[in-house]
C-alpha cells in the first residue's frame, strides 16, 4: 500500500470538523476553543455549528461575541434599518464572557457546545466576590480611601457635579447615534472637553509628535478606569446582574434575610452614592469607547492609524475590569437615553454622606441648603422597550407558558419608569421609613445558610431572588441594559413571573432561578439544574434561553419552587481554573487530530476504519420498550428560609403569614423497561445526583469526493440504493460517515447491556471491552488494550424508534490515476462498497451523499427530537457522574464524535437516532 498524499487526506476528510484551542494574544486569559473546516470552502459546510442561533434581537445582549441574530418574529424592514445604522466600524474588546453564551445553547436540548464545554472549567462564575464590594451599597474602607485620594489628586479625576455627569452622558448619546460624519471631530476638541471637564491633564507629555492625539486621551482614561479598589468590576457575574439593582432597585424591598445579613443604618444614602459612582464609571467608559470607535472607524476608512506599540500598551494597561466597563458603555449607548426636564420641585431630603461632605457638589438642588428649590431633573429610559416586550412574548411562547393572566401589553405599563424615564437625582426612601431593619440582598444567596458555602466557587451558583411586580429585575430586562453572560436567562424568567399576577400568587415572591418550579401542570427548569438537562431529552420538551419546559412534573408536587440536591463530580471539582483542560492546547488538538498519532508523511489507507455502534453476531438485536414512569423528589434535605411576608410588602399572602420555603430535594427518575419478545418487565430508578454536562457533537458533512458504486461481486451490495443505505436482514444501515484512524480505540455497548450491569466502573468497562474485539483493522491496532471511549448504542432495537443499526465497514483506500477509490468490507466478509472520485478537478457525486448532506443541513437547525430512551440514558449518566457527548445520527458521524470526545477529554458518547 502506498501512503496517502496531503491532497488525498484533505479529500478524505472533507466536511469533517477539526477541533482547536488557541490563545488570542497576551492578556486575554484562557485560550479560545474553536471548531473549523480548514479543507472546505463551501459556506454550507463552514457555517455548521453545534449550537442554536439567537432568535430575537431582544436577546442579543447575552453574548459579547459578534453574532447574527435570527430574528424569527421581528419586522424585516426594522431589522434591515437597524443593520444599516450599524455599518460604522466599532471597537470590540478582546474580553468576552466565559463560557461563551452562544455555545451554551447546544443543538441538543439541555446540552452545550464544544466551546462552552471547555470553558465551563474557567467560567466567570468561578471568580470570588469582588474585594471591597461585598454587599449591595456597602463599601469597605479601602474603597472610600481610594476614591477620596482620586478626587483630591491633581493627576486623575476632577470633581464633577452630578448634573455635569448626566449632561456629558447626554452629549455622548447624541455623538454615538450620529451617522457617518462628513468631517470627523478633531482630536483637539475631544482633548479640551476631556481635560477641562472630566480629567486633569497629563503631568507629562505622552506623545511628542501629537500631544493632543486620541491615543493620549485613551491612555489617560484607561489609567483612571484601571485604578484598583475604586470601580465596580463587571467581570464578576454577580455585579453584571446587580447593575440594574443600583439604577432601579429599592434597597428596602430587594433585601431578604438569608443568614448572611450585614446590617446598615444608612443603606439608602450609600446606594445613592454608589449610583453616582456607577454613572461616573459609565461616563468614563463611554468617553473611552467613543474614542476607540473613532480610531477603529478611522482605520477602516484609511484616515487614522495607530502604532503597534500603542496597541500593545492598551492591551496591557486595559485590564479585565476596564474591558468590561467598555461592554457596559456599549450596552448603555445602545439602549439608554438620558432625558432632562428643566423645572421641578424637590420635596425629598437631600442625601448625605462622606462624598457629599467632601465635594459639596453632589446634589442638583443645593442652593442655600434649601430642600424645595427648583432645578433640572434627569431621568434614564430605555430606547427599545417594545423590542424587549416582544422578546418576552417570544420567550413565553417558546416555553409554552400557560396563558392565564400574562398580558405582554401590560409589561411596559408596569415598568413605566423605564418607558417614561426613572429620575436619577431623587433621593431614595429613608431606611427608617419601614420597620424590620435592613438586610443584605441575597440575589446571589446560596441555597443554604452555610457561610462557607457562599465563598466556595462552583461552576453553577445557587441564585435566589426576591420578586416584585415591576421590580428591578423586570426593569433591567425592559430597559435592555444587560451585560453578556448568564444574567439574561434570569432576567427573562423573573420578568415573566413579575408581570404574571397568577404566577406570583401561586409561586410566591421568592424564586430559585437556578432550580425549577411547577406551574399549571407543567414543570419549568433552569438549564443550570440537572433535572432540566435530563428532562430536556424528552419528546415535547421545549428550551429557550436557558430554560426548559416539560409536561413531566414531580410526583405529588403542586405549584411552587424547588431546589435540587446535586453535587459536582470529583473530576470536575479538581480540573478548574489553571488545572482545566482548556489550557492544554496541544493535548486538545493532538487528541482529536484526523490522523491520530500518525506521521502525516506515512499515513496508510488501511490505517482507517469506519466506526459503528454495535453488531450482534450470535443473536438478534435486543427489542425493548422504555417508558418513563415517575419523576420523584424525596424528603427535603434542606430549605431556604425566607423572611416574613411584610419584608417584601407586595406578596398576595396575608400579613401574618410566612413566605413559602423553597425546599431542596434529591431527585430520581423511574423507568419501566419491557422486553418486547418475552413481555418481561423491569423497573429501573436512577438518582439525578451528579451535576454533569451533556455536549452536542458537532455536525459534519460526508465527504463528497467519494462516489458509491454497485458491485456485482457482493451478494448484498446490489441492494444499495441511492439513499445511501444497505438493506440487510430487513434492517437499514446508514453508511454515511468519515473514516477513523486506528489510534482512536473505542467500544460500543447497547443500552440494554448497561442496564443489566450492576456494580461497575467506567474504567473497568473500557478495559474489559478492548476495541480490537469489536472492529477489524487491516493494519496492527494500537498497542493499548483499553478503549478510550464508550459508545452507548441508543439506536438499535428500541420499540419506539426505527429499528436501525450501522454496518461496520473497514475501508481500503487506493489510487487509480488521478482518482481516489475506497472499498469497505464488513467483518462478515459479504458486504462490499466501492467508492471513487476524480482528483483535483472534481466531478459528479452520488445522490446518496448529496441527499444525506442536505438532510443533515436541514436537521442541524431543527430540534424536534426526544424520547424516553434519551431521558433514561441521560439519567443513567447523571447517577454515574459521566459527562457525555451526544451524537445524533445523520447530523454527525460517529468518527467525528469520537475525535471530539478526545478533544474534550470525555469518555462517554451517547449515540442517538
List the helices and strands and how they pair.
Blueprint: H1 6-12, E1 18-22, E2 32-36, H2 43-46, H3 76-85, H4 114-119, H5 141-152, H6 162-177, H7 187-197, H8 214-225, H9 237-248, H10 267-301, H11 308-317, H12 320-335, E3 336-341, H13 354-359, E4 377-382, H14 385-398, H15 411-414, H16 416-419, E5 422-423, H17 451-454, E6 464-466, H18 472-479, H19 487-498, H20 501-507, E7 510-512, E8 516-519, E9 522-526, H21 530-535, E10 542-544, E11 547-550, E12 560-564, H22 570-574, H23 585-590, E13 608-609, E14 624-633, E15 638-640, E16 662-665, E17 667-675, E18 680-687, E19 694-696, E20 707-709, E21 725-728, E22 731-734, E23 740-741, E24 746-750, H24 751-756, H25 762-768, E25 789-794, E26 810-816, E27 819-825, E28 832-837, H26 847-861, H27 868-880, E29 884-888, H28 894-904, E30 908-912
Parallel strand pairs: 12-16, 19-29, 24-25, 25-30, 29-30
Antiparallel strand pairs: 1-2, 3-4, 4-5, 6-7, 8-9, 8-12, 9-11, 10-11, 13-23, 14-17, 15-16, 17-18, 20-28, 21-22, 26-27, 27-28
Helix pairs in contact: 6-10, 8-10, 9-18, 10-12, 18-19
Region (Disordered): 417-461
Biased composition (Polar residues): 427-450
Protein name: Helicase-like protein
Give your account of this protein's structure.
With 913 residues, this protein is an alpha+beta fold. Among the domains are: 128-439, no CATH class; 508-567 and 625-673, no CATH class. Helices cover 31% and strands 16% of the residues. It has a 7-stranded mixed β-sheet. Strands 19-29-30-25-24 form a 5-stranded parallel β-sheet, sandwiched between helices. It comes from Apodospora peruviana.
Amino acid at each position: 500500500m502506498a501512503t496517502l498524499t496531503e491532497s488525498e487526506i484533505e479529500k478524505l476528510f472533507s466536511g469533517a470538523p477539526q477541533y482547536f484551542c488557541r490563545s488570542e494574544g497576551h492578556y486575554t486569559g484562557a485560550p479560545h476553543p474553536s471548531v473549523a473546516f480548514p479543507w472546505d470552502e463551501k459556506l454550507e459546510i463552514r457555517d455548521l455549528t453545534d449550537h442554536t442561533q439567537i432568535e430575537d434581537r431582544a436577546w442579543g445582549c447575552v453574548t459579547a461575541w459578534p453574532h447574527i441574530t435570527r430574528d424569527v418574529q421581528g419586522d424585516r424592514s426594522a431589522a434591515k434599518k437597524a443593520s444599516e445604522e450599524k455599518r460604522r466600524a466599532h471597537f470590540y474588546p478582546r474580553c468576552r464572557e466565559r463560557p461563551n453564551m452562544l455555545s451554551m445553547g447546544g443543538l441538543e436540548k439541555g446540552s452545550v457546545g464544544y466551546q462552552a464545554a471547555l470553558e465551563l472549567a474557567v467560567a466567570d462564575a468561578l471568580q470570588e466576590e469582588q474585594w471591597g464590594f461585598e454587599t449591595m451599597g456597602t463599601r469597605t474602607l479601602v474603597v472610600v480611601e481610594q476614591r477620596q485620594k482620586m478626587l483630591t489628586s491633581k493627576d486623575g479625576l476632577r470633581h464633577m457635579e452630578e448634573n455635569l455627569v448626566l449632561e456629558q452622558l447626554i452629549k455622548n448619546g447624541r455623538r454615538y447615534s450620529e451617522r457617518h460624519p462628513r468631517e470627523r471631530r478633531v482630536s483637539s476638541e475631544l482633548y479640551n472637553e476631556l481635560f477641562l471637564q472630566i480629567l486633569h491633564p497629563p503631568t507629562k507629555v505622552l506623545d511628542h509628535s501629537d500631544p493632543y492625539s486620541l491615543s493620549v486621551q485613551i491612555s489617560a482614561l484607561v489609567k483612571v478606569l484601571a485604578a484598583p479598589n475604586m470601580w465596580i468590576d463587571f467581570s464578576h457575574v454577580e455585579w453584571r446582574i446587580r447593575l440594574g439593582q443600583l439604577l432601579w432597585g429599592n434597597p428596602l424591598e430587594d433585601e431578604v434575610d438569608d443568614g448572611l445579613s450585614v446590617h446598615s443604618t444608612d443603606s439608602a444614602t450609600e446606594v445613592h452614592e454608589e449610583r453616582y459612582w456607577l454613572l461616573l464609571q459609565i461616563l468614563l467608559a463611554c468617553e473611552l469607547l467613543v474614542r476607540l470607535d473613532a480610531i477603529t472607524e478611522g482605520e477602516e476608512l484609511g484616515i487614522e492609524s495607530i502604532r503597534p506599540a500603542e496597541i500593545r500598551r492598551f492591551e496591557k494597561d486595559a485590564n479585565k475590569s476596564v474591558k468590561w466597563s467598555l461592554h457596559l458603555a456599549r450596552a448603555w449607548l445602545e439602549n439608554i437615553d438620558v432625558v432632562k426636564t428643566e423645572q421641578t420641585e424637590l420635596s425629598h431630603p437631600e442625601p448625605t454622606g462622606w462624598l457629599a461632605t467632601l465635594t459639596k457638589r453632589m446634589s442638583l438642588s443645593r442652593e442655600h441648603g434649601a430642600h424645595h428649590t427648583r432645578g433640572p431633573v434627569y431621568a434614564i429610559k430605555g430606547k427599545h422597550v417594545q423590542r424587549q416586550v416582544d422578546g418576552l412574548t417570544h420567550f413565553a411562547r417558546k416555553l409554552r407558558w400557560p396563558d392565564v393572566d400574562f398580558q405582554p401589553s401590560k409589561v411596559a405599563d408596569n415598568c413605566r419608569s423605564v418607558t417614561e424615564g426613572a429620575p436619577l437625582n431623587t433621593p431614595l426612601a429613608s431606611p427608617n421609613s419601614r420597620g424590620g431593619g435592613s438586610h443584605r440582598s441575597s440575589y446571589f444567596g446560596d441555597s443554604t445558610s452555610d457561610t462557607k458555602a457562599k465563598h466556595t466557587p462552583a461552576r453553577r451558583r445557587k441564585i435566589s431572588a426576591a420578586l416584585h411586580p415591576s421590580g428591578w429585575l423586570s426593569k433591567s430586562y425592559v430597559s435592555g441594559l444587560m451585560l453578556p453572560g448568564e444574567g439574561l436567562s434570569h432576567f427573562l424568567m423573573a420578568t415573566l413571573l413579575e408581570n404574571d399576577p397568577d404566577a406570583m400568587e401561586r409561586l410566591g415572591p421568592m424564586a430559585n432561578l437556578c432550580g425549577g418550579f411547577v406551574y399549571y401542570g407543567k414543570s419549568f427548569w433552569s438549564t443550570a439544574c440537572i433535572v432540566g438537562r435530563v428532562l430536556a431529552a424528552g419528546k415535547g420538551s421545549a428550551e429557550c434561553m436557558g430554560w426548559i419546559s416539560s409536561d413531566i412534573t414531580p410526583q405529588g408536587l403542586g405549584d411552587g419552587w424547588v431546589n435540587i440536591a446535586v453535587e459536582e463530580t470529583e473530576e470536575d471539582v479538581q480540573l478548574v481554573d489553571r488545572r482545566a483542560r482548556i489550557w492544554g492546547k496541544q493535548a486538545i488538538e493532538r487528541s482529536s487530530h484526523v490522523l491520530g498519532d500518525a506521521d502525516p508523511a506515512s499515513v496508510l489507507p488501511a490505517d482507517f476504519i469506519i466506526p459503528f455502534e454495535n453488531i450482534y453476531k450470535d443473536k438478534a438485536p435486543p427489542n425493548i420498550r422504555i417508558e418513563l414512569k415517575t419523576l420523584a423528589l424525596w424528603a427535603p434535605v434542606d430549605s431556604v428560609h425566607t423572611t416574613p411576608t411584610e419584608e417584601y410588602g407586595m406578596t398576595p399572602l396575608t400579613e401574618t403569614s410566612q413566605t413559602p420555603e423553597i425546599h431542596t430535594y434529591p431527585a430520581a427518575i423511574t423507568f419501566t423497561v419491557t422486553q418486547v419478545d418475552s413481555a418481561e418487565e423491569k423497573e429501573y430508578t436512577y438518582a439525578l445526583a451528579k451535576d454533569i454536562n451533556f455536549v452536542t457533537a458537532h455536525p459534519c458533512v460526508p465527504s463528497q469526493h467519494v462516489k458509491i458504486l454497485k458491485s456485482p461481486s457482493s451478494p448484498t451490495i446490489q441492494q444499495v440504493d441511492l439513499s445511501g443505505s444497505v438493506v440487510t436482514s430487513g434492517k437499514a444501515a446508514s453508511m454515511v460517515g468519515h473514516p477513523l484512524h486506528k489510534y482512536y480505540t473505542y467500544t460500543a455497548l447497547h443500552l440494554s447491556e448497561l442496564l443489566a450491569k450492576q456494580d461497575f466502573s467506567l474504567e473497568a468497562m473500557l478495559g474489559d471491552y478492548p476495541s480490537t474485539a469489536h472492529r477489524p483493522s487491516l493494519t496492527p491496532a494500537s498497542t493499548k488494550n483499553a478503549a478510550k471511549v464508550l459508545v452507548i448504542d441508543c439506536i438499535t432495537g428500541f420499540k419506539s424508534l426505527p429499528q436501525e443499526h450501522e454496518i461496520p465497514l473497514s475501508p481500503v483506500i487506493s489510487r487509480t490515476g488521478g482518482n481516489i477509490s475506497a472499498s469497505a468490507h464488513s467483518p462478515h466478509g459479504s458486504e462490499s462498497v466501492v467508492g471513487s472520485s476524480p482528483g483535483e478537478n472534481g466531478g459528479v457525486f452520488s445522490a446518496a451523499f448529496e441527499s444525506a448532506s442536505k438532510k443533515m443541513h436541514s436537521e442541524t437547525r431543527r430540534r424536534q427530537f426526544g424520547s424516553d430512551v434519551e431521558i433514561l440514558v441521560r439519567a443513567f449518566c447523571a447517577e454515574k457522574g459521566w459527562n457525555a457527548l451526544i451524537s445524533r445520527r445523520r447530523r454527525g458521524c460517529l468518527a467525528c464524535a469520537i475525535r471530539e470526545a478526545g478533544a474534550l477529554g470525555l469518555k462517554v458518547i451517547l449515540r442517538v437516532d
